[in-house]
């Protein structure tokens, strides 16, 4: 329960229509895209300006109220599931693109700007904002920065952290902090910008975000290579990188996913293929031409049964439509979908793919695997029905084994979806206790009352588990 | 408040459909309402969560959920874009029915649906009277859209510019026993639909002319009732079912190959909702409804795909006229019909220019427009802006309800753009 006097203050600051407290509304801010139990906040506040964010944080600080920021709520790690009885701050109204600076190639945005809308606005000026999470049609820049989101273009263009030049945010005490700058280089002070990227709302509430833009590539070429063993596909990935070619995207689909996509869209994919690689090279037309041919030759040399190069924009669109429909196609098979993003060094992709197939067989569950082969970031997607408790227990055990396998190969629990609640209990396995301790001390110093998104990332336990 | 357990049990009927939502939030990018309000309860994911909440019996009364559930245009944009294939519209419609059966319909809706709409004869008589007296209360705008606005400030009409009722509804133009014209090719029965009958008789005339021209026989039985969507959207499954019975009996008496309608909403209702939402169907009636559903087709699609596949472009032969086309949600998102109306417009020699977001909802949403006019109008304003930006002289769309909403928006903005159904435009040329 929340003290009515606090609600009155929120009302005064934000206007009644931007403060929600009814149980029905609380339910709709109790979940995100992760398969985790929902938790109801006590109030949802929807600020429209920097000043209003500041006031909200100050009130939470004063009353030691837990505060969880919510962008689009599409994260897959439970980062926006609030603390019971806490406050949710929705950035829905903070959706203004403040500036797109063509001369200096940067953009300044409010945190609630939708990723695809920024990308389109930038593209209209001949510039390029590369990070493209699969959720970009709805995800917000604030959420992308807080999760350090990646996408299909991560291999060549990097992820969100590579584009954040500067930030403005409110810390746990309600102080307004400025970090970074609008210059390409900036060497003053700690790299607080870097610290904030991926902090999942635990270190501050992001307000203004300055993002680096780059010139749009002039040309691109896409192709599909078909393989009858997944090993050959993975070897091709390694060979392309070894040939010093960095495609803009290099995606893999396993047989399970190929069949699902084909059933769903009838795109004409080879359902017998063990794996497909979808590859796009981009850049200067002459380079694209040359690299395109080299990639095609490499695919064939390493045993591709066929390589299909898109000759027109329509053919190119068809290739990427098939990739984009992977998740939809899998999602339609069973009610519950657990999308993991265990990531391994790319040379270990064949081992990881094999491990996933073994895990699926061992636990008798369905796993479709697709993902960013080029950067080692796979998306084993587990299909289940959460109501089937026995099966769901097997799913949970399988997830743990996936984590263990990825770590044993020198990988990470998450390539892009973050830690949140879902992976907090496993973080120590990856980073070790000292790392958790360091993070907790940092958090404690900056947020002594544990207001900012409690329970996320660094978990709850205070002692080492082993 | 009566027993919420009982309601929870009723909602369980939807469980299998509700669990398919994976809470991914992708519906946010296409929901016209969410674009305006950015509130989670206004988008499909939030509403589905609320229904799951009802099922899990976590509320002490159903009003809050009911109220939020009704803030929805039923445009189906979310369903068309949902990676998990959640049948959002069917869930919402069934849920509205469950809730209003549980709570009871409001007295006003009782009168409108049970006493008026459910009895096609009474409804026709009432509307005919209204048509005669409307001049007393409204004044024509003398604009390109032919709208009127209220003479007196009326809370129901607010500052709408609405299309007046036709002086004679279309059904009065056809013989008592209905119209039957034989044709050389196949036979089409026409379901006229309330808005075409009472506001846009010209669309019905144009449809007959076009079918006739292409040698298709036309059957229009008289005494047709409403397709039932207004009742259904308000949760009145009983009136809906009565109307389905009435219409089914009427059309089953006729011989025809296809049932065509020029109203996107009627088509999608007959094709999808008649078989899916009929109250307590036995297997016999289910089969009959499915058989009719298979025979039902949008008129643009029927003309282009089945009647005159050779229909070529006569692009630009009507110089100076440019048309932009709005995709009605019920046509594109529900039935996947988008190319055919455009083909008809080009075949009419008109220069077709695409607007930005041609398949974005116009904001009408049936009763949504009545209960949430301000929201409806702000969504409509975006549409109006996109239309105006094309510099067109005519807006064309395949749904009379969209035509009303867009006419209101264009009239408000003071533009000279006229509003026509593709079939009307095509009929002008033959
Ligand atoms: C279908 C689908 C596909 C996806 N594909 C990808 C993908 O390809 N790559 C990828 O990286 N992710 C992907 N994701 C995950 C998710 O979309 C990303 O993590 C995204 O960045 C979340 O953005 P959001 O606006 O929804 O943030 P939310 O989910 O609302 O929030 C995410 C985290 O950020 C914090 N936060 C949000 N705004 C602020 C702020 N202003 N200040 C401080 N903290 C804030 C929240 O508290 C939370 O911890 C996908 C998700 C789905 C459902
Ligand atoms: S897009 Fe579909 S599955 Fe995703 S949240 Fe919306 S309704 Fe649910
Ligand atoms: S039907 Fe339309 S208005 Fe309703 S939730 Fe879906 S997209 Fe939004």
Provide a quick synopsis of the model.
The complex is a heterodimer of chains A (466) and B (430). Chain A is of the alpha+beta class and 466 residues long.
Structure, explained:
The complex is a heterodimer of chains A (466) and B (430). Chain A has helices spanning 4-14, 23-28, 50-63, 115-123, 141-147, 154-157, 192-196, 230-242, 255-265, 285-301, 313-331, 349-362, 389-408, 427-431, 433-446, and strands at 19-20, 43-45, 67-70, 87-90, 97-101, 106-109, 127-128, 164-170, 176-180, 205-212, 214-215, 219-227, 249-254, 275-283, 306-309, 336-339, 366-372, 377-384. Chain A has 466 residues and is of the alpha+beta class. In chain A, a hairpin with a 4-residue loop joins strand 17 (366-372) and strand 18. The longest helix of chain A is centred in the C-terminal third of the chain and has 20 residues, at 389-408. Chain A is globular. The model of chain A is unreliable at 461-466 (pLDDT under 50). Chain B is an alpha/beta fold and 430 residues long. In chain B, 51% of the residues lie in helices and 9% in strands. Chain B contains 22 helices and eleven strands. Chain B has helices spanning 4-11, 15-18, 32-37, 44-55, 63-70, 77-81, 88-103, 107-117, 120-137, 194-198, 201-213, 229-233, 237-252, 264-277, 283-295, 299-307, 329-335, 339-347, 367-371, 373-389, 400-412, 422-427; strands at 138-140, 148-150, 179-181, 187-190, 217-220, 258-261, 296-298, 322-326, 351-352, 394-397, 418-420. Chain B has a five-stranded mixed β-sheet with strand order 3-5-4-6-7. The longest helix of chain B is centred in the first third of the chain and has 18 residues, at 120-137. Classes of the chains: A alpha+beta (466), B alpha/beta (430). Chain A binds chain B through residues 20, 22-25, 27-33, 38, 46, 72-74, 90, 92-93, 95, 112, 114, 116, 135, 137-138, 327-328, 331-332, 335-337, 385-387, and chain B through 19-20, 22-26, 28-29, 38-41, 45-46, 49-50, 53, 58-59, 64-65, 68, 83-85. The structure holds flavin-adenine dinucleotide and iron/sulfur cluster (2 copies). One iron/sulfur cluster binds next to helix 4 of chain B.
